[in-house]
Amino acid sequence: MIRIYYDQDADLSILQERTVAVIGYGSQGRAQARNLKDSGVKVIVGLRPGSSSAELAREDGLATAPIGEAAREADIIQMLIPDEQQAEVYAGEIAPHLKAGKALMFSHGFNIHFGQIVPPQEVDVFMVAPKSPGPMLRRLYTEGAGVPGLIAVYQDYSGRARDLALAYAKAIGLTRAGVFETTFREETETDLFGEQCVLCGGVAELIKAGFETLVEAGYAPEIAYFECLHELKLIVDLIYEGGLTEMRCRVSNTAEYGDYRTGPRIIDQRVREEMKRVLAEIQSGQFAREWILENKANQPVLKAMRRREREHQIERVGKELRKMMSWLKK
Ligand SMILES: NC(=O)C1=CN([C@@H]2O[C@H](COP(=O)(O)OP(=O)(O)OC[C@H]3O[C@@H](n4cnc5c(N)ncnc54)[C@H](OP(=O)(O)O)[C@@H]3O)[C@@H](O)[C@H]2O)C=CC1
Ligand SMILES: CC[C@](O)(C(C)=O)C(=O)O
Ligand SMILES: [Mg+2]
Ligand SMILES: [Mg+2]
Questions:
Q1: Interatomic CA distance for residues 90 and 77, integer angstroms
Q2: Where do the annotations place NADP(+) binding (predicted)?
Q3: Quick check: is 230 catalytic?
């Protein structure tokens, strides 16, 4: 059974003697640093030279420093820059300051699990991963609530790594909702699988395939956009709030019947077999090796695919249709 921790399981006082360096001030960095500060934890935000975020962090009332300096000052170093940048920044600016007894933290396990960052044995290594984007983590904290999260301990040199992870999770509001204990391996592999097969890759291809099928059959691209992309939010919101059952209660009976009848023909055995192959590539490290090489080569494949996808007809149609939707932010 997976273990779940709440506020009463975490002792914030163990952070009171410690300084936390939050490296990066993006989606997670800003939210985590502000929540830590408001929970009474001493925080320094570590930023690269000329960082565009320095002014914002200072406006938010946080101390800033170059990354190396923040890492030197801190007892706990939380890596919140993009995953593909972390290994280089770690080697150059964090590792020299990782003295015995310090802690190195992550909100995603890729670099530890796939050996891109190999910390010395005499430090704690753990993860605290909110299950939400940064702005939502911050908003719920200010409202006195919290989002659920994950913790994982990779290396427990001090014997207190789990206590530190729980205290950090409490300081950013996660134990108000509940924190699940996982491992770096489980978090990393399921995260990659979920985003590739379902959340990003799966959904994007499903949308395009539906849109292209309707357009090729002679239907108006605008109508195809509404049916295959725009209305997805309505469905996802219902699923998010009440699961598949709630969604199926709220759509028409015709839609519900069509769901049961046709869904398994679309996501069929072949798709399930392919998902298993994708999972095997993630587990074996094949995907990680490919992605690491891609970054070493300055992301040529990513850039080419990004360019091609942005030119898809559904993106051109959507750009025009969204101008009619006054409720959407620019
Ligand atoms: N985004 C999310 O919702 C979630 C993210 N995570 C994890 O959290 C971590 C952080 O992700 P996220 O917040 O999205 O990251 P962001 O892309 O928002 O991070 C941006 C920050 O990283 C800094 N940065 C970028 N490149 C470098 C570099 N080469 N050297 C130094 N600083 C750099 C930027 O600096 P500058 O300000 O100078 O531009 C900026 O402060 C990742 O491990 C991610 O997997 C986990 C759960 C959810
Ligand atoms: C779904 C995307 C994600 O895995 C996330 C924010 O959890 C990511 O890597 O961005
Ligand atoms: Mg994820
Ligand atoms: Mg991810």
A1: 10
A2: 25-28, 48, 51, 53, 134
A3: no
**Is the ipTM above a cut-off of 0.90?**
yes
Q: How far is the CA of 158 from the centre of ligand 4 (A)?
A: 29
- Ligand nearest the Cα of residue 66 is 1
| CA 81 remoteness from chain centre | 11
CA pair distance 16, 13, nearest whole angstrom: 5
- Residue 176: what residue type? R
Rg (CA), the chain: 22
The residue assigned the tokens 């659920």 is: 148
Q: 199 in ligand 2 pocket by Cβ < 6 Å? A: yes
The interaxial angle of helices 201-216 and 313-322, nearest 10 deg, is 90
Q: What is the pLDDT of residue 330?
A: 63
Q: For 48-71, what is the mean pLDDT?
A: 98
Cα-to-centroid distance, 26 and ligand 3 (Å): 16
Which residue has a Cα nearest atom 1 of ligand 2?
Answer: 195
Q: Which residue has the tokens 């002014």?
A: 55
Q: What is the mean pLDDT of the chain?
A: 97
